From TrEMBL:
Full protein name: UDP-glucuronate decarboxylase
NAD(P)-binding domain segment(s): 32-312
Pathway participation: Nucleotide-sugar biosynthesis; UDP-alpha-D-xylose biosynthesis; UDP-alpha-D-xylose from UDP-alpha-D-glucuronate: step 1/1
Function: Catalyzes the NAD-dependent decarboxylation of UDP-glucuronic acid to UDP-xylose. Necessary for the biosynthesis of the core tetrasaccharide in glycosaminoglycan biosynthesis.
Leading EC class: lyase
Subcellular location per the Swiss-Prot or TrEMBL entry: Golgi apparatus, Golgi stack membrane
GO cellular component, one term: Golgi cisterna membrane
Amino acid sequence: STRSPCGPRVRGRNVAGKVPLGVRKKNLRIVVTGGAGFVGSHLVDRLIARGDSVIVVDNFFTGRKENLMHHFGNPRFELIRHDVVEPILLEVDQIYHLACPASPTNVVGTLNMLGLAKRVGARFLLTSTSEVYGDPLQHPQVETYWGNVNPIGVRSCYDEGKRTAETLTMDYHRSLGIEVRIARIFNTYGPRMCIDDGRVVSNFVAQALRKEPMTVYGDGKQTRSFQYVSDLVEGLIRLMEGDHVGPFNLGNPGEFTMLELAEVVQEVIDPNAKIEFRPNTEDDPHKRKPDISKAKQLLGWEPTISLRKGLPLMVNDFRQRIFGNPKTVLV
Ligand code: NAD
Ligand code: UDP
Ligand code: UDP
C-alpha cells in the first residue's frame, strides 16, 4: 500500500526523505470527480495508462458511461455513481475535482472534496475556469487579475460558484495546510465533448456535419482561445505533480473570433457550410485569451496542438456519435 497506517503521508519521499526531486511514489490512488465527463475521461485514460489506480465519482449529470467503458474490467479502475453534494468516504492520495453542475451545489461538492482531502491528507486539485475573469477588462488575462463578474447575471451561478470554490480551496490550504492546486481552464474541445450543451465548438462541428447552418451569436467578432483536450490533461497532471498551488491559466493563447472559428470548421469539415447570425446571450464576454507565462515558467507547460491540428481530431468521434457507427465489414 502507498498509505502509511495513520495520518497524512510525506509525498514523494522515502522514510529518510532522500528520494531525488522528480521521483514520485508509484501507483497512486486517485479519485477523479466528474471522471465520466469530457475532460475527466481523458484524464482517467492518462492516469490509468501510467499505472495508477483510479476511482471515478460521477452522477452522470452530463457525463456518460461510454466515455469510460474501455476501462471496465480493469482492476485498477472503479466507477462510483455518486453526487458529490453528498459526503463520501474514500482512501486516496490525490483528488482531481472536476464534477461541476452549473448550479450553486458546485460549492457544496467542492467543500466535501476538501473535507475528504483533509481527512486522508490527499492533494486536491480544483478545475476552475477562465469564467472567473468574467467580461475581462484586462487582455490577455493574467492570474493576478481579479475579474469583472456580474453577480446577478444569467451566467453568474457558474462563475461565482467557481470563484467561491477557489476561495474555499485557498482557505483550506491556508488554515488547515491542505495541499491544493488550482487550474483556471480556458475553452477546451476534443473527442467526447458534449454534443448538445451549446458550446460553440461542439455546435459548429455538429451543425457542419449535419449540413445545418453554423449559428454565430451576435456579430461573431467576440474572441475565445480554444485548447485541445490532451494539452489540458498534460497541464492538469503537471500542476498536480508540481510544487505550485496556482492558480494557473491552462489554455491555448491562440485567439479566434467566432467567425474565424466558423472558417476553420469550413476548412476542416465542409467548405459549403453556411453561417447564420443569431442574437447573442446576455453578458457574453467580448474577449478571452490566457496569459500562460506562469504555467510556462513554473510547470514547463504550453499547448502543442493548434486549432487547425486539433479540430480534425474530434470530427470522427462526432460523426460516429451523430450518425452511428458504420457497420463493420467482415472480409
Ligand atoms: P463535463 O460536463 O463533460 O464533465 C463534468 C462531469 O461532472 C460530468 O461527467 C458530470 O456527470 C459530472 N457531475 C456533474 N455534477 C456532478 C455531481 N454533483 N456529482 C458527481 N458528478 C457530477 O464537463 P467538462 O468539460 O469535462 O468539465 C470538467 C471540469 O472542467 C468542470 O469542472 C468544468 O467547470 C471545468 N472547465 C471545463 C472547460 C471546458 O471548456 N471544457 C472550461 C473551463 C472549466
Ligand atoms: N467530507 C466528506 N468525506 C470525507 C470527509 C469529509 O465528504 O472523507 C465532507 C463532510 O461531510 C463535510 C465536508 O466534507 O460536509 C467538509 O468537511 P470538514 O471536515 O472540512 O468540515 P466539518 O465537517 O468539520 O464542517
Ligand atoms: N457561440 C456562438 N454560436 C454558438 C454557441 C456559442 O457564436 O452556437 C458564441 C458565444 O456567444 C460565445 C462563444 O461562442 O461568444 C463561446 O461560447 P461557449 O459557450 O462555447 O463558451 P464560453 O462563452 O463559456 O467561453
